[in-house]
Design brief:
8% strand; mainly alpha
């Protein structure tokens, strides 16, 4: 699959799941490199991304939306709190529940970081025709739907 120069050659016998994994890994590596200059770790990125869409989520809801287990989320959020990206506030209705709020520091990074991700997507899609990308997106969504049915 991989040549000695690191490039991957196309082949019709490649397994879809393996290709998706390789694409994901390559995207994650580039993301990690490009966001590091802002002091954001890759694991923190996913929480920031969700909170930029909806701030003030409960820790449980945030964990669910990011797709991590609650203990993993708690560790990541603790680190993010120490880094000054979030603050956790106990709910007035239920003291067992903590809401997670972005700090001004995290909000300042939003536009810059979203542009970073857009540039990664642009770089990843370089040289691929729009029709091919449309097919890729439709195929990916269908695969996600197929697999989601298997987990219910």
């Amino acid at each position: 699959m991989k040549k000695s120069d690191g490039h991957v050659e196309a082949s019709t016998d490649q397994v879809s799941s393996q290709l998706v994994r390789h694409v994901n890994r390559a995207l994650q590596q580039v993301l990690e490199i490009r966001i590091a200059t802002s002091g954001i770790k890759r694991g923190q990125w996913y929480f920031l991304r969700v909170l930029w869409e909806e701030d003030g989520l409960s820790q449980r809801e945030l964990s669910k939306r990011v797709g991590t287990k609650e203990p993993t989320a708690a560790m990541a959020l603790r680190t993010m709190e120490k880094s000054g990206f979030i603050r956790r506030v106990r709910s007035k209705e239920d003291s067992r529940r903590a809401q997670v709020w972005l700090t001004p520091k995290a909000n300042k990074l939003r536009d810059k970081m979203l542009k970073v991700v857009q540039s990664i997507t642009k770089d990843a899609e370089k040289g691929i025709a729009k029709a091919q990308l449309d097919n890729f997106r439709k195929t990916s969504v269908q695969m996600i739907n197929n697999l989601t049915k298997l987990t219910k």
